[in-house]
Amino acid sequence: MNTTRKRAWQGLNAILNEGQYANLWLRQHGQTLSEEEKRWVTAVIYGVLRHREPLRWQWRDLVRNVPEPSIAVLLDMSVYQLFYLNKGAEYAIVNDAVELCPRSKKGLVNAVLRQLLRRGPKPLPEPESIADLALVTSHPQWLLQLWKAHYGEEKMRRIALADLEEAAVSVRINPLKLSREALAQRPDWALESNGWTIRTAGNPVSDPWLKEGKIVIQDRSSQQVALMLDPKPNDTVFDACSAPGTKTTQLAAMMNNEGSILACDLHAHRLALVEEAAQRCGATIIQTRTLDAAQADQQLAGRQFDRVLLDVPCSGLGVLRHKPEILLRLTPDSLDEIVALQAAILTHCAPLCKPGGTLVYSTCTLNRKENDKQVAAFLLQHPEFELMAEQTIFPDEGAQDGFYIAKMTRRG
């Protein structure tokens, strides 16, 4: 039996049936796999997560009742290999699936998969209706309706279809450890026009420069947050929700490692990630502190900063390429809960911005209640702040995540 298939099944069970996150599971369990095995397991896990509804639609009519969750996931994974990934390896896929499941389910799994092979893949419906688009893209209908109301029907369709694409790996330079001249010595790598994003060839995840802190994996949309804040050398910066530290280290680089950054997070174990990132990147101006951003003005009473970054917790609807499992747990009620938390963070962090200072609010989601409507409500209650710029970045507009960024200044 192919033990790599067993490992992929274990991962999918942990994510789909036990509530774990794909990236964390792969980080924890991928160390026992070779690079080739890890690439295959990663491809299967994310492929099943992105296409889970079409996969189940292929076999659901062949069983009287949906089997227990682990067997349903095994069928999903097998269908993904048969119809999306490993065409030509049908015998091995079916054989391994039968071997993986308990004796009482072997007949069911064998019969379903062999019927699928005889029938072949059922064509998916054209995604003309909301219901059919939900099936094709594995997005809940209520979310598609929300995007339609917020951004229009055409944009809603483009976002949902873009979420099916494999997530791009974006890289930025760390000028604290890598000069632009040294980067120019690699003819297959080049800085893009923004001066931070690197156009790369090959796999930057395995490049030695990553471990050395010379480059940082960071989505190109995420990079825009620090650029909007625009910190200068010798500024004082408050990064309220800093973990895992990717944006924080970019801020330090923009400041030429001069000044100070107070990087905070609610959880100490998350701050450890910020500290590791700072050490790897050579960012010595970063200090960390455990802090509840929704009570920041009380916990940091008397302090003010030149720049305040609020990269707040959000529903994550802009990063579904990287985290498709978000859709498994998201509900309309959970969106309302996160909106209230964001409002509290804005209200209690805003006093930490000096008169004349800059406040940036950002999310990696596509939900106007969390984005421009959140900022508009804040500005209505806080006339001492003025909106200078705002931007919504959509995943269908290039190899990037969806983000919202608003830049405000506090009147002097």
UniProtKB/TrEMBL annotation:
List the protein's name. 16S rRNA (cytosine(967)-C(5))-methyltransferase
Instruction: Write down a Pfam family by its short name.
Output: NusB
Please name the PANTHER family in this protein's record: NOP2 YEAST -RELATED NOL1/NOP2/FMU SUN DOMAIN-CONTAINING, RIBOSOMAL RNA SMALL SUBUNIT METHYLTRANSFERASE B-RELATED
Query: Family per UniProt?
Result: Belongs to the class I-like SAM-binding methyltransferase superfamily. RsmB/NOP family.
Which residues carry out catalysis?
Answer: C364
Native source species: Holdemania filiformis
Question: Where does this protein hold S-adenosyl-L-methionine?
Answer: D265, D292, D311
Where does this one sit in the cell? Answer: Cytoplasm
